[in-house]
Amino acid sequence: MSSEQIVLVIGASRGIGLALVEELSARPNTQTIGTVRIPNAALDLPNVRFVTLDVTDEESVAKAASEIPEIDTLIINAGMGKRDPVLTTSTADLATYLDVNVLGPHRAIRAFLPALRARKTRRIIPISSTSGSIGQQAMPGSGGLAGAYGVSKAALNMLAVQFHKELQKEGFTVVPVHPGWVATDMGNRHGTGGMPPATSAQAIAKLVDGLTAKESTTFYQWDGKVVAW
Ligand SMILES: NC(=O)c1ccc[n+]([C@@H]2O[C@H](COP(=O)([O-])OP(=O)(O)OC[C@H]3O[C@@H](n4cnc5c(N)ncnc54)[C@H](OP(=O)(O)O)[C@@H]3O)[C@@H](O)[C@H]2O)c1
After folding, report:
1. Centre of ligand 1 from the C-alpha of residue 119, in Å
2. Spatial CB neighbours of 24, under 8 Å, sequence gap ≥ 6
């Protein structure tokens, strides 16, 4: 990034989000803001401002947005994911997935639009997953259980495409990014072997730097490879 950038990472208390704010805070030309659901005095990173925000709570999202007047890049990392087959997931539990992983980003993007419009960069990066890739999931023999989580991430991808279509005339870049298999609380549910959060975060930050409006409608993974929708 050449000129000063303001980057907001939603869901920065731990895992990939925390690694992202750590990575961004080391940049001299970047103002980094991270959100947490519960204020935590132990999260005291130099050069990172923490703001309270729960993506499932409209008022909390609106309050955070009122405290942040300008952003170049909005990274929506907050998410939930367990290994829940749709066969055994109740409708209420599926609704929770959708609330956190789809309605949450919808609330956040709408609330932070004025802050994004206040700058020229206008970049929105929902952190998605290959579990939401219908192209991959529908391949014969595709391994791994995506289940209810996959349903929510596929909907998140469509949300990103629709925001792109409606915001492209204003010069917005809306690109979902799969972070890879990462050794976090979520990633470790699939066993050991996920990459360190810092490795994924460094690659995502580099990838995001280069994304412009012409990359909208492409689904990327952390290392810059294109993922099937
Ligand atoms: N790890 C992987 O291998 C992997 C693979 C593909 C995609 N992803 C995606 O990457 C993103 C980050 O995953 P992760 O592995 O870092 O997960 P994680 O370790 O479980 O962390 C999840 C983050 O989301 C926050 N969050 C959850 N619900 C929230 C809510 N209602 N409002 C605001 N924040 C909320 C959590 O905050 P609290 O601390 O308050 O709970 C935490 O900061 C997710 O979107 C996930 O789907 C991860």
Report:
1. 27
2. 7, 9, 30, 32, 48, 205
Q: Where are the domains of the chain?
A: 5-227
Q: Which CATH class is domain 5-227?
A: alpha beta
Residues in Cβ contact with 158 at an 8 Å cutoff, skipping those fewer than 6 apart: none
Largest CA-CA distance found in the chain, in angstroms, rounded? 50
Q: Which atom of ligand 1 is nearest to the CA of 190?
A: 3
pLDDT tens-digit readout, 120-158: 999 999 999 999 999 999 998 887 889 999 999 999 999
Helices then strands, each counted (H, E), the chain = 7, 9
The set of protein residues with a Cβ atom below 6 angstroms from ligand 1 is 11, 13-17, 37-38, 53-56, 77-81, 100, 104, 127, 129, 178-179, 181-182, 184-187, 194
The packing angle between helices 104-117 and 58-66, to 10°, is 20
